[in-house]
Design brief:
This protein is α/β, with parallel strands linked by helices. It is 42% helix and 17% strand. It contains 28 helices and 31 strands. A four-stranded antiparallel β-sheet has the order 8-7-16-18. A four-stranded mixed β-sheet has the order 12-13-11-14. It has a four-stranded mixed β-sheet with strand order 29-28-31-30. Helix 3 packs across helix 4 (144-163) and helix 9 (406-415) packs across helix 14 (529-544).
Length: 920
Amino acid sequence: MSEERVFLCSAWGIRKLRHKKSGPDLSNSKKSETIERKNEMKELEKTYDPSQIEDRLYRKWEEKKYFHAEVDRSKKPFTIVMPPPNVTGQLHMGHALDNTMQDILIRFKRMQGYSALWQPGTDHAAIATEVKVTEKLKEQGIDKKEIGREEFLKHAWAWKEEYGNRIVSQLKKMGSSADWDRERFTMDEGCSRAVKEVFVRLYDKGYIYKGSRIINWCPVCKTSISDAEVIHEEQDGYFWHINYPVVGEPGRFVEIATTRPETLLGDTAVAVNPDDERYTDIVGKMLELPLTDRQIPVIADPYVDKEFGTGCVKITPAHDPNDFEVGKRHNLEEINILNDDATINELGGKYAGMDRYEARKQMVADLDALGLLVKVVPHSHNVGTHDRCKTTVEPMIKPQWFVRMKEMGQAALDIIKTDELSFVPEQFDKTYIHWLENIRDWCISRQLWWGHRIPAWYCDECGETIVSRETPTVCPKCGCTHLTQDEDTLDTWFSSALWPFSTLGWPDKTPEYEYFYPTSVLVTGYDIIFFWVIRMVFSALEQTGKSPFKHVLIHGLVRDDQGRKMSKSLGNGIDPLEVIDKYGADALRLTLITGNAPGNDMRFYWERVENSRNFANKIWNATRFIMMNMEKADFSAVKLSDLTIADRWILSKVNTLAKEMTDNMEKFELGIAVSKVYDFIWEEFCDWYIEMVKPRLYNDEDETKAAALWTLKTVLIQALKLLHPYMPFITEEIFCNIQDEEESIMISKWPEYTDEWNFEADEAAVDTIKAAVRAIRNLRTGMNVPPSRKAKVYVVSAKEDVRYIFESSKSFFATLGYASEVHVQEDKTGIDENAVSTLIHDAAVYIPLEELVDIDKEIERLEKEAAKLAGEIKRASGMLANPKFVDKAPAAKVEEEKAKLAKYTEMSEQVAERLAQLKK
């Protein structure tokens, strides 16, 4: 290696020199640099207080535009779109985890030199916002219907302005480094234009149509909802068995069983299986529909399972999706017997106006009175409920707008079989595939005012439907100028399905769209794969011809410490802002990622947050120690050959760590990566290396002090960079105080593995030293020797290379091993016979007994301990020899005494062995 000294960056600032470099650059930067000391050394506060640094640093990052990504063809793009939180939203642990994971990835890629765009924004959240605004108006004595649509929308926009930025400010408290300059809203001008464009394109292609089909109707929200918004919950209910009289055959009945007897009013047939011999003669006959004046036919259809129930099924086409299909096959009438609020409508006769459950109760009583109620059987079954308001939904036939899913669903299925789209972990492919294989046409119209209004108009004269990007003024069919726009709005997910490309300027071919799309990775929970992920995929494939993202990184739920889902009803939710106020954002972020594996739920423990805070304190205190010692030597001209075995060991360790962490993070193993840097900083760097170098720092004559200081600073900075994506605030504060070469850790270079810092032999050597130190500490602990009592330590090895390791490491080995002196030799010459020993690989360690303990006092102590143990053994043996105790005492108590006897016996043997050794 060249003897030319390579000048290094220090904590006091730099000026760059034109310098011909011929040796290894220890700063791992491209240019050599020298030192210009400042008059005053920077200092960290004595204690780490996140509340004093986090807001200040975040303002700095925003002001410096570090989050902003530009189209830069000299760099590779890396793009993440933020799942847009609702404008009504409050930050919860799910948001905290989701956004922490995204921030880790975007900070990592930014440091790697990518043009890293984290595209943020918020969702208008149609139903959620409309409910909130309606409730607010109600409190003011204002009825939504009385003020009308336009006035209501003014209130909705005012709500959005007042509350829409709340969750964004909370995400900032988390340290989210999203490009807020590019923040979007699902109802902003650009996104709204994209929505209209997609609607018109799909309509023109025949993929969007309007028709009367069975949809999920929420009687509380009074709107249709999609299949994905229906949660099927197991509920206890009943099967009501009812006799339908056969017309013209007095005393003959067809027995059906139903879980919803009130829908009987909408029955238009009873179906049997065509292969069911029990009912061959009745197919085609008419039945009296109980409680009505109508007659309905018996039909044969393979839909009926002849093995289930009575084999006869009531068909209600307007209130059951399967019955709807049967009705279409047999041209049955569709009779809707419910109002929008789930009361019985005017077709219900005497039951009109009753709530669905009130009508059910009355109808069952009337059937019983007529002798037509055969029996009532308890039955547990799946009941569909609206995921938002938890109301039981009603399948109901209504005219709605639908998206035909056959072709687009197949395209989304095909793409998962290629390398253009993958789930992490892979198991969530199954969820994606299962949903697509069973997908039905998507009901996209909602009976709401807040949202994207459907771009369809109807001619008041001829009824022509006009779908247009712009508001039409004349009917293309009859020339009439009286046109009325459809009252409905689009499902929220229709606009958020376009999020990966609408936010980048599509349908225009903007520079951002051309550069940042397709996006790189989507981070989201497994609970919205079918809500959102699938819709983004098929929408993107249809509109852009590309998958919207390369990878879908799935995370689980954050549960409480008992494993329960956090919810308002349980009162077990934990506010992330409360955690931040108490422990800081870094501690919360580290807690959420530590032990986190893709796709798995995690439990939240306050103790873990405290551990994360303690880790931050550990780094802070270690840095203060380093900075307080940095003026003890000028380390500006240190070269690799100046480093000691300990320095090369820790440098090699952080070098390998960079390689492993990079590999883990590229594979989205964020929890594994952070555990490695955590262990490195806490154990290897703080607990081992800093303790190793202290004797050199405290010794004014030690010529390796400069090498120690350079290594301390260099390794700390490397470790801070590796930790930065996880704990951005504390790493930035320390980084900006311990060096002046770079203005922010955010835009510094991600550490890369270099062969120059690979010292495998030194790693093995220090591992040998550490093994000896652990052995000495275990031996001393077993003999109750306090750390303050020093003792001679002899290291004996027949191998010259092992002896060299200990000879060259005496200074720190003595400190770590509590040694007053260290002697390294080839054999046991000069070592007392009573010396205690411990073995490590290829060496033995001896310590003179009298150096560790006062032998007479130790014998006295051990004899007392032996007597005490003998008493315990006698007591336990006596109890176990007593048949009354063994036969009558609880089995657990007997086992407990047996365990005690075994423990006392083992301890007694150890004490006897020690006494024998001391009395030699």
